[in-house]
Amino acid sequence: MTAPAIEPAGTPARRAALRLLDAVLRRGLPLEAALSASTSVLKRPDDRGLARAIASEALRRLPDLDALIDSATSKPLPDDAKARFALRIALVQALAMNTPPHAAIATALPLVDGGPRRLVHGVFGTLMRGGATLPELPHLPTPVWARWQVWGEAAVEAARTGLAGRPPLDLTLADPSATAEWAERLNATSLMPGHLRLDASDVTVLPGYDAGAWWVQDIAASLPARLLGKPGAAGTALDLCAAPGGKTLQLAAAGWDVTGVELAPVRLARLRDNLIRTALPATLVEADVMTWQPSAPVDALLLDAPCSATGIYRRHPDVLHRVRAPAIAELATQQAAMLARAAEWVKPGGRLVYAVCSLEPQEGERVAAAAGGGLVVDPIRADELPAGLAPTPEGWLRIPPGALAGAGGCDGFFIARFVKS
User: Fold this and answer.
1) What pLDDT does 114 receive?
2) Cα 162 from Cα 313, distance rounded (Å)
3) 52 vs 24: CA distance, rounded Å
4) Which residue in 241, 307, 357, 410 is the catalytic one?
5) Which domain holds residue 74?
6) Which of 4, 156, 382, 416 is the most exposed place for a label (fewest CB within 10 A)?
7) Which of 95, 129, 163 is a domain's end point?
8) Pairing relation of β-strands 257-262 and 346-356?
9) H or E stretch including 258?
């Protein structure tokens, strides 16, 4: 009786990476949502981290990996073929993650047991012997490239640069007046009061974390709450679709009597934990904003609406592959309905900010242009924004690919501010 083959060390992590890629590319799940189930068999945190890193890097470079694979096969492999997945995993390690080629292929071949191992080994060997390389800047998937042409070729090239790099870490301070002090303590730079930018990964070990002096939030994501300003006496505010919670924390720190509304209980729990850590006051409600309503109108409302999230592609490259045109259209319709409903909850003279972390005009500009319900554009001013960002002629803020590139970049966003007539 033949003894079962012993898999090379590290194979389970590669098998988990394959499950992650399958969840994103075939089932359309966000990478983060698939992490727990896809890596549950891995006992070591390092293995879980490796599986995630391999899948994430493969998603960043997927068009270029597939172009290499197709160049070495007599006919294209199906997009969902296990051999293609195994080759993506082997090639991205060898060409982008400094894994020795023999280790990359040895841990990938068991992924096609019972399948075309010979094909995978042959294609990989052909490419390695031929000196295959990946471009310095990853190419965008063709549908994304076509959609983002609206921002101009320079912006599309900037998107490729953003995809290739490691985004910096942004923090929002609970007390903006302490910006200089915290910048010195954390060896950080600041693009505006209350903001810090630094190069770090484990935020829990940084000074100020346990004390709740700050929270992680991309500078673009911090702007919608900033644009609501500070409250007058006993100003009330609603933060709709509130998780992961940075906006609720901002509004509470600014002095608003804020209620955060969030449908997902897991995300709401994360917001609750951050409120405890920062000792900031807020009321939390687990509800769907399309069926819930407040007991009374409010002075300010922030709707950071559910969207394609294509603006966060630098940290979450899966959005480039799983979000397609029909979903964008459906989300835009949903946003318009939410905006119309939210407009009813604002007092006359009160402010409403609508925002999406999307680079799709169908979600941002077109929804804002069609806003009714007594909403009148309250133009965003340049002096409310960090240097390098500017309002549009309509008084909105569009943050395209490549914005703030000289300072490390930021997420893509659209923001519109209204006053209720």
Assistant:
1) 75
2) 9
3) 12
4) 357
5) 11-129
6) 4
7) 129
8) unpaired
9) strand 257-262
If asked whether residues 389 and 263 sit together in one domain, one would say: yes
Residue 385 is predicted with a pLDDT of: 97
CATH number at residue 308: 3.40.50.150
Residue 43 is part of a domain; what is its CATH number? 1.10.940.10
Other C-beta atoms closer than 10 Å to the C-beta of 86 total: 28
Domain presence at residue 139: no
Neighbouring CB atoms inside 10 A of 387's CB total 11
SS3 label, residue 171: strand
Region class of 345: left (phi > 0), else alpha (psi between -120 and 50), else beta:
alpha
Last residue of one domain, picked from the residues 129, 151, 185: 129
Where are the extended beta strands (E) located within 242-396?
Answer: 257-262, 283-286, 298-304, 346-356, 375-377
Show the beta-strand stretches assigned E in 75-182: 169-173
Phi/psi at 18 (nearest 5 deg)? -65, -40
Query: Which residue type, as a one-letter code, is found at position 68?
Result: L
Q: Do 104 and 72 form a contact (C-beta atoms < 8 A)?
A: no
Q: Does 96 share its domain with 229?
A: no
Residues 111 and 247 in one domain: no
| pTM (predicted TM-score) | 0.93
Closest by CA position to 351, among listed 304, 418, 397: 418
Q: Is 91 part of a structural domain of the chain?
A: yes
Quickly list DSSP for 25-77: HTT---HHHHHHHHTTT--SHHHHHHHHHHHHHHHHTHHHHHHHHHHTSSSPP
**What's the mean pLDDT in 281-286?**
96
Q: What is the pLDDT of residues 30-40, one digit of tens each?
A: 999 999 999 99
Q: How many domains does the chain have?
A: 2
Range 357-369 average pLDDT: 96
Note if 410 is an active site residue.
no
